[in-house]
Design goal:
This protein is 44% helix and 21% strand. By secondary structure, the chain is of the alpha/beta class. The protein has a single domain, classed as SPOUT methyltransferase, trefoil knot domain (Alpha/beta knot, 3-Layer(aba) Sandwich), CATH 3.40.1280. The protein has a five-stranded parallel sheet. Helix 3 links the parallel strand 3 and strand 4. Helix 3 crosses helix 5. The two termini are 26 Å apart.
């Protein structure tokens, strides 16, 4: 199952990009043996200033057709890391070919787009900068692959 991180905005060279690249590389290497991955990042940018409406159009084109759609949103479901790992395994075991995680811009994700998602996922009640959410998602993907592979990275 291929994993796509579709995000509004571009990560510039810096610590966030370094962390995302590192965790997604680890995820891809760990996930290969268990049928999850590789991961790739698709960045979209609304250069015309159309706001959430324009971002939804760009994100819709970025998400592969037929992909399981998971949006990152503060109002979403809160899962433990093992529960998140099980979600990935369930989608993989159902034969899903693509899984897309969507990270919105500074104003979040359009409500209609969010309502059409298979899962709305929250990393807690606090609002996180969308650039840090990418780091947190990349780490949780690696953690989930490690859990499913039976590796000692996750200590619960």
């Amino acid at each position: 199952m291929r994993v796509h991180v579709c995000a509004v905005g571009r990560l510039r060279n810096g610590p966030e990009l370094t962390l995302v690249d590192d965790y997604l590389d680890r995820f891809t290497k760990t996930g290969r043996a268990i049928g999850i991955g590789p991961a790739r990042v698709i960045e979209v940018e609304d250069k015309k200033g159309g706001g959430m409406v324009a971002e939804v159009a760009l994100l819709t084109r970025a998400v592969p057709k037929g992909a399981v759609l998971c949006v990152l949103d503060e109002r979403g479901q809160r899962l433990t890391s093992p529960e998140f790992a099980q979600k990935l395994a369930d989608w993989r075991d159902q034969g899903q070919g693509d899984l897309a995680f969507v990270v919105g811009g500074a104003d979040g994700i359009d409500a209609d787009f969010r309502a059409g998602a298979d899962l709305s996922l929250s990393f807690g009640a606090m609002v996180w900068p969308h650039m840090l959410v990418r780091v947190m998602l990349a780490e949780q993907l690696y953690r989930a692959a490690s859990i499913l592979a039976g590796l000692p990275y996750h200590r619960a």
